[in-house]
Design a protein that fits this description.
Structural class: alpha/beta
Number of strands: 16
Strand order of the largest sheet: 6-5-4-3-2-1-16
Number of helices: 6
CATH superfamily: Ribonuclease Z/Hydroxyacylglutathione hydrolase-like
Number of domains: 1
Shape: globular
Helix content: 10-25%
Distance between the termini: 5 Å
Largest sheet: 7 strands, mixed
Bound molecules: zinc ion
Order of helices and strands: EEEHEHEHEEEEEEEHEHEHEE
């Protein structure tokens, strides 16, 4: 399969010469199967450029069909959708997959992006066919010759990790994903707090929570084990995460640990902090590469235009 990155930035898009090496667009990954099926993970601002490429592959004539899997629906993962040209062409079909969204509902989130107050074309007037589908993890979804496994990862509300497989090759995307030892953030995950004898909240971990942490790590390692490409959240450093443990993101050190646990063929550092320049991204790439030296695991910091045939 073909794997291509259209956006590696987290939180919000950014531009300027300090960001030109890795790019400023937010998260978007594209895969094309050997059979020619199109699959994308996340619709950050990077998806605009993907739209231009797809227009040259049948979508301009309304012959296109694509699956779009959302890790979650925070702004940086959906904000490119109204600027994705193939949506406006009659005949194209888009299958959108996301976790169920208990606070707003899927329909409200996606149609909300096209509300008349903020966008000139209403959702219902889009010419393509858009099918919204909920995923309840853990589950495997088959789409054409792709097989996509989903698990809930550690982020605010519900965020999904995906393992996308095609003809024995796989790409696993684990973003946005907080360090489980520092915070447990997903809906349904156990509370990190217990109360002391005075009824006051303490950060001491209960046995139940420790068991959950251990079980989560095992599940995550099993999910990504031996994958060809593992995309990892590396938004923070060990310094910048202090005080932000509950913002839902990881560090390069966590990526190193994950790489040891999962033994992927390649690890791609993702969700670059828009407050950090190219030089910082290069530093983290060097750090992780050094740490994994001798393991056979290749290391790259994700950048727009990264492409690989698996
Ligand atoms: Zn994000």
């Amino acid at each position: 399969m073909l794997f291509r990155i259209y956006g590696s930035r987290g939180s919000y898009p950014i531009s300027g010469q300090d960001y030109s090496l890795f790019g400023g667009h937010t998260t978007c990954f594209y895969m094309r199967s050997r059979g020619g099926a199109h699959l994308t993970v996340d619709a950050g601002t990077g998806i605009r450029q993907l739209g231009h490429h797809l227009m040259r592959e049948g979508f301009e004539r309304g012959n296109g069909e694509m699956a779009l899997f959302f890790t979650h629906t925070h702004w940086d993962h959906i904000m490119g959708l109204p600027f994705f040209n193939p949506l406006f062409i009659e005949g194209n079909v888009f299958n959108l997959f996301t976790a169920s969204l208990p606070y707003s509902g899927i329909q409200a989130i996606f149609s909300g992006l096209f509300k008349p107050d903020i966008f000139p074309v209403p959702f219902d007037d889009l010419k393509s066919v858009i099918k919204l589908q909920e995923i309840i993890p853990p589950v495997t979804v088959d789409y054409k010759d792709f097989s996509v496994r989903a698990m809930q990862i550690n982020h605010n509300n519900i965020s999904l990790g995906y393992r996308v497989e095609n003809e024995g090759k796989s790409v696993t995307v684990l973003t946005d994903n907080a360090i489980i030892e520092l915070a447990r953030m997903g809906d349904g995950f156990p509370d990190e707090y217990i109360r002391d004898e005075n009824g006051k909240k303490t950060k001491e971990l209960s046995q139940k929570t420790l068991d959950f942490i251990s079980e989560y790590r095992t599940r995550q390692a099993e999910f990504a084990r031996g994958t060809d490409i593992l995309v990892c959240d590396t938004h923070f450093t060990v310094d910048t995460i202090v005080g932000r443990e509950t913002w839902g993101h990881s560090t390069p050190d966590e990526a190193i640990r994950l790489a040891h646990e999962c033994q992927p063929g390649m690890i791609i550092l993702h969700h670059h902090d828009p407050e950090r320049h190219d030089s910082h991204v290069l530093e983290k790439e060097e750090k992780v590469r050094k740490a994994l030296d001798g393991t056979g695991i290749k290391v790259f910091a994700g950048y727009e235009g990264f492409e690989m045939e698996l």
